[in-house]
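Human: Not sure, check this?
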Amino acid sequence: MIVSTAGIAAFAPLLDWARWILAGLAAIGFIALLLGPGAHWLAGERQPLTDQERRELSANERVEAINSARHTLLQSATGLVVIGGVAFTAQGLWYTAQTLDTARQSQLTAQQSHITDRYTKTVEQLGSSNLDVRLGGIYALERLAQDSIRDHQTIYDVLVSFVRTHDLKSKAKSISKPTIDVQAALTVIGRRKMHLDISRLDLTGVRIPNADLTGARLKNANLAGADLSGAKLSYADLSYADLSGAKLPRVILNRANLTHAKLFSADLSNADLTSVNSARVGLSDANLSGASLNRAYLGEAGMSGSDLTGADLIGANLNGAGLIEAKLTNANLSSADLIQSNLNKADLSRSNFEGANLSHSNLTKANMVDANLNRTDLRSADLSGATAIVEIKVRGIAMTNTETQFGLLSNF
């Protein structure tokens, strides 16, 4: 009976409360069995006592034997109860954990379903003919990206696509700046959490002149061939970005980060790059005529063939920069740091180097017609073949030493 009750409690398809009741009844029956017949059996009474056995054992001895057996059985039963309690507790904890896990999975499924619904609705808003609805969709996508990290890249790819399909290429020529919704999308893109990006932003060839991207996070972005004429990019992070062939005339880039950025053949005429950080930037064949590079950091920049006509480079750091065949006519480089720079065959005519440091620089075959070298540091510089250089005159106005090389000069 006890075994049957325990078996039903363990294996029969019952409700939890019924299972626990049957298990309790089975336990009570088992204990009663131990304290009754079980105690007599353990005390040696496996068969009914004969008259002879009854005479040999006093009543006290018989009671003492049975009580001793009962005590032993109680200890055993107590141990079994403790073990059973531990087992039941473990089973209860396991059941609770399974219940919580199921609830958690259900909650995650519900959350993902909710996020999917939100995403679908917000994307639909971007296609609305109503400006307010489109703006709502843009900001709703930003909030969704914050709530769902796994959808971060997808959401910003959608916003980039929105900018690309709504830029000025498809607008009237009279429009000179991004529309309100495109500017809003650019602002949202510019303040995203860059460390969550899986792939780079693709804004290749986008036309957004006069856009406001102040402080924008555009690290590693692809802006090759983009039109950013007159755009505001102060304090923007454009490190490792590709701006090759981009249109950037009159752009404001003061204090921006252009470290390792690619600006090959880019148009930066009359741009403001005051105090910009452009370490190892690629500016080969770029147009920087009339640009302001006052106190800019251009250490080890690649600027071969670039046009810096009339540029303001006062106090700029061009340490180790490559300026081979660069055009610096009428450029102002007073107090600039050009230590170990390469100005081979560069056009430096009428440029101002007053107080600049050109020590250890390569000025071979450079055009220095009417260049101002007053107080210029030319120690250990190589001026071999430089045009319009008179050694006596140079040594009289500039700092030189025995290692300053004049070689065969093209004087006139």
Summary: The chain has a mean pLDDT of 83. The first helix runs from residue 2 to 11.
